[in-house]
């Protein structure tokens, strides 16, 4: 399908706003046509990972200069030529990155890798892109509003934007977000359109889901049940809060491909089950009861064998200030066990709040690290010799053991902090 | 690319072009959706997701036949990276259109199709020989390998 372009978009494609914008439009048109989109939608809220790359990718483009400009042109814009990348005009932010800006040595990063990280960050800032360095931009200064068209990467942020806020974004990729930063356009497809946002399957919740832990397990069940479809959840879900949506969405996006969900009476486009479906419920009907809950818990814990935990990772998605306060409360007066490590991940913005509020100090005094920018899965950084890890995040439990070839346990934040302080996993399902 | 086939294909499927071009090779088929970032090691072109039916299998140089993409928004970047490491698939055939799969196919720059008149997952098995002509919108299948 050939996309319908406005006169301005045709001029952009043809180079009226410079070569970089022309290359961005070329990529976005190829992408829009692949989707079957009819036209573009304007966006001025873009979240991606523009131009950041490890050293080996720059070396791959050595013939093109091996620098930020080469990577942005060849990889981000998928361009056959290297172009000058102008200062970005749109409201754009950089999501999570590869290492902590201060504790990178503890993460096992080399001086060379850190120098590369710093150079990329200077380029990002120099191009007018906000350095949020987090998977939770909505906790660090980028909160869309209902109906706002966005172009976001990061599946957990995408599902939060669509479901909890009522913002409109597809699960964009690195190349489409970098191009959108230049062109301020994305294909008008999927979640930008009303008809695409309606529920497709019903999940009836018949066991109480109230805490972060329970919301996380329900999310993992939901993704496995509906895959990439839009679920409508109804029933025994209570005590909604930002951090619970954050865990639910992240889990649903990793076990399936959920990019939007409705919870009747809870999320903004679901005042009722019927409203969420745009009519009578349709699709499949799934039940989440005590048996399903136990099965999900067992599935998440199927990759744990040894109970000697040598690494506890919290902060997936990045912890909020409220979660750091909770971690500090659980750590107060305790020490991380000599055979274990505790790393807690958040954004720089939230870390600043945690410093001011005293949580960071308590966490450090307990012998834990409070890290920003990244997580173990993104950076592939775990403490040396890690064989068995523990998480309070279904998403991280899904990814990190597979990426690093280690064992993993899933439980509550309390289970995790107890494991960090005793070196033993004692989590169980009550 | 001139087809190597000396006999007519066993199955012919029509579909919509996602990325144009013509290619042929051996099929690698999964009935499970594929996670890119965190589910694929781009240095090896290998599926690493726990419990995935392709866990440990490489799609490098194969026609990847799968229902669709799932998981992280890093899908396109991971498949794009396989182009750099020389571990890219030869072509993609998938049923469920998502932004992940569309963008991934675009930056992989390999012949890719979707919206079929007949489900490739019902007709193609791992090891079958598949020719994608995404310029004319056809997929030809020879059962059991290279004809």
TrEMBL record, chain B:
InterPro entries: PMDh-S-like, PMDh-S-like_dom
Keywords recorded for this protein, A-Z: Lyase
Species, as recorded: Croceibacterium soli
Protein name, as recorded: DUF126 domain-containing protein
Record lineage: Bacteria, Pseudomonadati, Pseudomonadota, Alphaproteobacteria, Sphingomonadales
GO molecular function, one term: lyase activity
Domain of life: Bacteria
One family name in Pfam for this protein: AcnX_swivel_put
Coiled-coil ranges from the UniProt annotation: none
Domain Phosphomevalonate dehydratase small subunit-like per the UniProt entry, residue ranges: 34-112
N-terminal signal peptide: none
